[in-house]
Amino acid sequence: MASASAATLSTAAPPTVTPPGVPEIFAGKSWYKWIATATVILGMMGSVLSSTMVNIAIPNIMGAYGIGQDQAHWMATAFFTTMPVFMLLNGWFVNALGQRGAYLLAVLVFAAASLLGQFMPDYYGLVVVRAIQGACAGLLQPLTMTVMFPLFPPEQRGRAMGIYGMGFILGPSFGPTLGGFIVDYMHWRNVFGFSIPLMLVAAVMGMSLPRRAPGQRRPKLNWASLVCVAAAIISFLVGISNAPRFGWQAPNVFGFLFLSASTFTAFVVIEIVTANPLLQVRLFAIRSFTISMVVAFMFGFGMFGSFYILPLFTQTVLDYTAIKAGVLMMYTGLMMVPVFPVGGRLAQSLPSGIPISLGMSMFGVASLVLAGATIDSSFWTVCLWAGIGRIGLGIALPSLQTGALRDVPADLLAYGAGTLNFVRMTGAAIGTNGLAIFLDQRTIYHADYLAATQTPDNLRTGEFLDRVSGMLADQGIGSAEQMPLAVNYLGRVVASQANDMAFHDGFMVLAVGFMLAALSALMLVGRRRRA
Q1: Residues 204 and 255 both lie in one domain
Q2: DSSP secondary structure string, 451-511?
Q3: How many domains does the chain fold into?
Q4: Residue environment code for 2-22, b if the CB has 16+ CB neighbours within 10 A, otherwise e
């Protein structure tokens, strides 16, 4: 145990050609690692594709069920709430079922949930479906790293994480495109059914993964830890979601936030003292791992927050159709494709903090520019700057993965991968939920501020009303109706401008957050990369 714990991934012996438990047809084959990589990447891409494909259908879902933004965001939030919880269960599922069993369970349950979503008549039923999909995606993402990382020798792991990054980011990038096509030319419900064939193919390919070793002792599941961490995340998100409606001082809001803090504290204490932790607290004694967790949180916050905010911004402010917004996301994803090999090489040749800081800075600058975009901004200008932000993510992600796991002991790899993804996707949940709430609050703030300035003493307001009244008169509208209609139109203009200003504020939050994360990443520069 001591020697195993002391051995790090970077100093471990080169991996075997094939791990124990693979089907006989693959045993000893040098190309097996590519079969396994393609298998887990397909499952992961199918799950993260769904994470953003549904976002493009949110305006349609709001109309179909007569709900507002304060409820609609739970379609995304439910997905990102269960995902980090089940990421912590990665180590337990791999030990209990083996890589093959855990993978097959995740992809088949995901397919079943997608089928339910296709026909679910109730909005809250859709939220439950999204929660199930998020749980499966939570298993698939760290499992992908758990399968891939040992198959590649240390000098090739940067390249391997570049491949992982391509699947991790391209899936969400292409999701809105496919979702837009489905929404515009089919029906929004089909965004759920799209992933079913992918998951069934992934299940067939999953038979190539190693099975659980016969006679291996099944680990005990730490139910107390699971309940505490789930309660902490869910109560926190429910609390901040209710705050805009009831106020931060409301008893129910305070109660949820207090419950979140209490259960999270209990979770940490249990993890320290238990013999079967979900999260290995001793991982945070590794400096590079701890710093990487700070950056990973902001990475998830910004990446998935932008996947939520950008399609909404282009449709509600820039007046894009669903498919046009999706095409924008696809183009930005395509701009990343040639970047991943470069990001992989940088991860192998430079201290991890340099590529991470560079990539995070690029995303921050791109968000700053997008904050100034208006309806007069050209499609290609918006596409360029959104693409620059995605390129930054492509540069940063391979180094973030290798930098976080570089010094992790080999026997803690599954836990390290699960914790990395847990932290990143907790950031995604808070980013998606928090930005939705932030946009709602800032829209109200700007609408109230702008409305307060529309007084009879405001010359510009008077000129605007006179001009609109004149236009109505030219259309044959009677004088008695001109001013009420002009005032009504002024109200819609104020609401539209308030919405525009709220998105400006949202992009500014992303810009500031990523710049701070870039500074944090520089703390990794002093660490020499081990071969």
Answers
A1: no
A2: HHH-STT-HHHHHHHHHHHHHHHHTT--HHHHHHHHHHHHHHHHHHHHHHHHHHHHHHHHH
A3: 2
A4: eeeeeebbbeeeebeebbebb
Q: Which residue has the tokens 């390919």?
A: 205
223: tokens are: 């139910």
3-state helix, strand, coil in the chain (%, to 5): 80, 0, 20
In a domain, 103, yes or no: yes
Q: What's the CA gap between 393 and 387, in Å, rounded?
A: 10
The values of phi and psi at residue 319, to 5°, are: 65, 35
User: Is residue 458 included in any domain, yes or no?
Assistant: no
Structure tokens at 314: 């282009």
What are 258-286's pLDDT values in tens digits? 999 999 999 989 888 887 787 788 888 88
Tokens in use for 35?
Answer: 């079969």
How far from 190 is each of 182, 309, 324, 449, 467, CA to CA, in Å?
A: 7, 22, 18, 41, 45
The answer to whether the predicted template modeling score (pTM) of the entire model surpasses 0.70 is yes
Of residues 148 and 215, the one with the higher pLDDT is 148
The answer on 331 and 439 residing in a single domain is yes
Q: Measure the CA–CA gap between 504 and 414, rounded to whole angstroms.
A: 40
- Domain identity same for 262 and 402: no
Mean pLDDT value of segment 216-242: 83
Choose among 206, 158, 152, 198: nearest CA to 26. Answer: 206
Contact 239, 275 (CB under 8 A): no
Answer yes or no: do 185 and 141 share one domain: yes
Which residues does 94 contact at the CB level (< 8 Å), separation at least 6? 102, 143, 146, 414
If asked whether residues 10 and 51 sit together in one domain, one would say yes
pLDDT confidence tier of residue 8, bands split at 50, 70 and 90 = very low
Residue 429, domain member (yes or no):
yes
CB 203 within 8 A of CB 105: no
Instruction: Examine the domain organization and report whether 260 and 283 are in the same domain.
Output: no
| DSSP designation for 416 | H
* Any domain includes 503: yes
Residues 93 and 418: their CA atoms lie apart, in Å, by 11
Rounded CA separation 465/482 (Å): 9
- Asked if 523 contacts 353 with a C-beta cutoff of 8 angstroms, the reply is yes
d(CA 531, CA 523): 20
CATH number for position 195: 1.20.1250.20
Q: Give the integer Cα–Cα distance in Å for 173 and 325.
A: 11
Q: What is the dihedral of CA 56, 58, 60, 62, to 10 degrees?
A: -170
Domain span at 144: 2-221+276-447+498-524
Are the beta carbons of 461 and 490 closer than 8 angstroms? Answer: yes
